[in-house]
Amino acid sequence: MAQEISVTIGVDSEGNEFVFSLTQSPHALFAGTTGSGKSTLIHNILCSLIENHDDDKVRIFIGDPKRVEFYRYAGTPHVERVARDVIEHEKMLRKLVFIMNTRYQIMENCMDENGLPVVSAYNQTMYRKDEDGIKSFSLPNIIVVIDELGNLVLDKQSGKNILDSIIQLVQLGRAAGITVLLATQQPTAKIIDTRIKANCPTRIALKVTSRVNSRVVIDSSGAETLNGYGDALVLLPTSSNKIRVQCLGMDYKNIADVIEKSVQKKLAKNTFNNQNATEAVKPQCKVIDLASLKSFRDSSVGKSSGSKYISPN
Ligand SMILES: Nc1ncnc2c1ncn2[C@@H]1O[C@H](COP(=O)(O)OP(=O)(O)OP(=O)(O)O)[C@@H](O)[C@H]1O
Ligand SMILES: [Mg+2]
Questions:
Q1: pLDDT class for 260, splitting at 50, 70, 90?
Q2: pLDDT higher for 118 or 144?
Q3: Residue 238 has what pLDDT?
Q4: What is the spatial order of strands in the sheet that 6-12 belongs to?
Q5: Which of 24, 31, 99, 161 is the most exposed place for a label (fewest CB within 10 A)?
Q6: pLDDT in tens, 35-60
Q7: Residues 265-286: pLDDT tens digits?
């Protein structure tokens, strides 16, 4: 079944919650100078996805070229991979292109009302099979988040391959259920290739250093006068009007809590399933001890947490 994936990222100038739908406006670009709030916005989106969606419906791939922001998500049930150096990014993106192409092959015969192969039509077909008692599996939404695109595409050795993979993902990923979110400190034409820009219809400009940079991101000036700290102008694919949004703040305690809870929830679910496999009825879950929590984390850090795909590597 098609699943709506949305996150509340802040409040607009009238004080209403601003909800960003990753299914309706796929692929987005976030840009802003240092300290403008890009990483905080990404933390907010990741925590919201982890808290509000099941890990079998949403799989997350994170690109963290700065290496210090997002490593703590490795081992979270929803997170497949956190890439840190350039080589890891190149491999992760190559794997994502492979997943996308594999998805196109398996959903070849599942068309939507316009006759196009899309992941929601595939999942709908699988859902009907389940109802008929035939076991099937649906394809989860894949969210790819990359902080600091500039550090990757300017790399002398891997930059071109990385850029090629990102362009393929933004051009073809949507129908295959893959959403790409890209952040950059340097919103220049050199970093934001025209093909990336054309395929990222949602743009969030945090404070930028010049009018020219503002135009690169939201096609008009204005973002250079923002206050910083999550003050943003948002351009959506549905309108040419920009919406002023104050993005939500996020501190490390909030992030640690969300990660902790998601790991606990997964452990509780696994414990319950294991007990059910051996006993017909079991009224209570076991209390989880901290040692098992730690060993679960240690064993998951930096590894895939259960990809259903065969990697080309
Ligand atoms: N929405 C927000 N509300 C309140 N404070 C914020 C918000 N966003 C960012 N800040 C503050 O600004 C600081 C810098 O934010 P953040 O690290 O997200 O910036 P950045 O754009 O990622 O910077 P860099 O490009 O250097 O990585 C945060 O530590 C926080 O104190
Ligand atoms: Mg940052």
A1: very high
A2: 144
A3: 87
A4: 17-21, 6-12, 242-247, 231-235, 202-205, 28-31, 178-184, 141-146, 58-63, 79-83
A5: 24
A6: 999 999 999 999 999 999 999 889 99
A7: 888 877 776 666 655 444 443 4
Please tell me the distance between residue 147's alpha carbon and the centre of ligand 2 in angstroms: 7
Range scoring the smallest mean pLDDT among 183-197, 220-234, 260-274: 260-274
Q: 203 CA distance to ligand 2 centroid (A)?
A: 17
Average pLDDT over residues 72-80: 94
User: Which two structure tokens, joined as six digits, stand for 233?
Assistant: 């102008």
Tell me the pLDDT band of 128, cut-offs 50, 70 and 90. Answer: low
Q: Report the predicted TM-score, pTM, of the whole model to 2 decimal places.
A: 0.84
Q: Whose CA is closest to 261, among 82, 20, 78?
A: 78
Angstrom distance (rounded) from CA 26 to CA 115: 20
40 CA: nearest ligand 1 atom: 18
| Residue-by-residue DSSP string for the chain | -----EEEEEEETTS-EEEEETTTS--EEEE--TTSSHHHHHHHHHHHHHHHS-TTTEEEEEE-TTSSSSGGGTTSTTEEEEE-SHHHHHHHHHHHHHHHHHHHHHTTT-B-TTS-B-HHHHHHHHHHHHHTT----PPPEEEEEES-HHHHHT-TTTHHHHHHHHHHHHHHTTTTTEEEEEEES---TTTS-HHHHHH--EEEE---SSHHHHHHHHSSS-GGGS-STTEEEEE-TT-SSEEEEEEPP--HHHHHHHHHHHHHHHHHHHHHHHHHHHSS---SPPPPPHHHHHHHHHHHTTS-S---S----
The residue type at 294:
K
Q: Which residues line ligand 1 (CB under 6 A)?
A: 32, 34-40, 185, 229-230, 247-249
User: What is the set of domains in the chain, with CATH numbers?
Assistant: 6-300 (3.40.50.300)
